[in-house]
Amino acid sequence: MSEATTLDLEKIEREATDKTLFGFWTYVMTDCVLFASLFATYAVLHGNTFGGPSGHELFKLPYVLTETMILLTSSFTCGLAMLAAQARDKKQVLIWLGVTFLLGASFLGLELSEFHKMVVEGNSWRRSGFLSSYFTLIGTHGLHITFGLIWMAVAGWFTYAKGLTESMRKRLTLLSIFWHFLDVVWIFIFTIVYLYGSLSV
Amino acid sequence: MRHKEIAIEEHQLSYGKYIFGFVASVVLTLGSYVAVTKFTGDRNVIIAVISSLAFIQFIVQMLFFLHIGEEKEPRWKQLVMWFMIFIVLLIVGGSIWIMNNLNYRMTPEQMDQYLKSQDSL
Q: What's the whole-model pTM score?
């Protein structure tokens, strides 16, 4: 194959990757709009406690800080997995993906046990407008985390089985965008829901 | 040679950026946590401080984790991002504005009357 043809092929492949990345990025941005609507709902309803507990009484900040730090660290280790993929280091990719998965799973576990505790105490989404919007917002984020974890498990398995092919590295890049995005959303959940919530008396 | 150039162009990832982004995010998160738990000042001041810290952390993560600033022209990703920010501000700002305004205009007596008229239906 002549050099010119090789270059053309590379260019075409690269453009295809760019298009995939751009398409996925556009999806992620529309997901932001979904979260924005839920944030708006929460902002409007957060005072409507209907005689039930307010965020100030419900939220335990040290617990939430632990969740936040775990998710933040998982975002970082996901970045380390991308750096390993860039260096074509399959073993490192698998290690960091595994660490990210475990951190994400423990974040989800903490969140679910918090939900469980609230529901058992009678403060489920049926209690008040505030709790409905709270569970919808945090639950949607948790659902995204769940799908991210499934995706990560599949991506890890494929990387293990098929190696770091070009298309695998593309998929890992998409996964990393998704995971970092979930951490970005959590910044606002942490600040607006938990920190604002515990300030209001 | 040419092959190498393409490979370099494809990735601008570096350890430094991720580590900086991570450390900055941890510091900013702890900063807003301490601002809420340790300081007993004016509530509005604390809200302004933690909102700013969240905004800075948003920018840090967009730049260092999502590499938004490293895109080459034409910057389609950034265009979509700005459109998203515009829509988000419309939805959130608009909802809060309209709903607070409704709340303000509807006095408690009117609310009672309204609820009673609903009951009788």
A: 0.88
